[in-house]
Amino acid sequence: SGINAEYGLKLIANAANHGIVSKDIEELEIWESIWLLRFNPSKCKVVHVNLNSNPNIIYSLDGIDLGASAQEKDLGVITHNSLLWNEQIKACISKANQTI
After folding, report:
1. How far apart are CA 27 and CA 93, in angstroms?
2. What secondary structure does DSSP assign to 5-49, as a single string?
């Protein structure tokens, strides 16, 4: 199996399809061995979206369980497990107030 050239955000709407995420993680592990570069599992987080009774499956990378987080910031955007933008808006307001 090779590395899929199609990367991006994937919506897993049914918890029964969690194998898709596991397969993607396996492809990352293959990428690591090809390029002799390692991801740092302690810096990798899983945000379980709390819709449709998510079972919060534990994923692992290189045999290390990935930590779960209620929210994460990526490229300056805060994504919360409720998919609400409250924290992002608070951060933007706070930053704007600091410049005033």
Report:
1. 39
2. S--S-----SGGGTHHHHHHHHHHHHHHHHHT----GGG-EE---
DSSP string, 56-87: ----EETTEEPEE-SEEEETTEEEETT---HH
Q: Looking at the whole model, is its pTM more than 0.90?
A: no
Q: In this structure, what token pair is assigned to residue 31?
A: 């990428």
Residues 6+ apart with CB under 8 A from 41: 60, 61, 62, 64, 65, 66
Q: Of 16 and 66, which is predicted with more confidence?
A: 66
Q: Are 59 and 21 in contact (CB under 8 A)?
A: yes
8 burial level (CB within 10 Å; 0-12, 13-18, 19+) = exposed
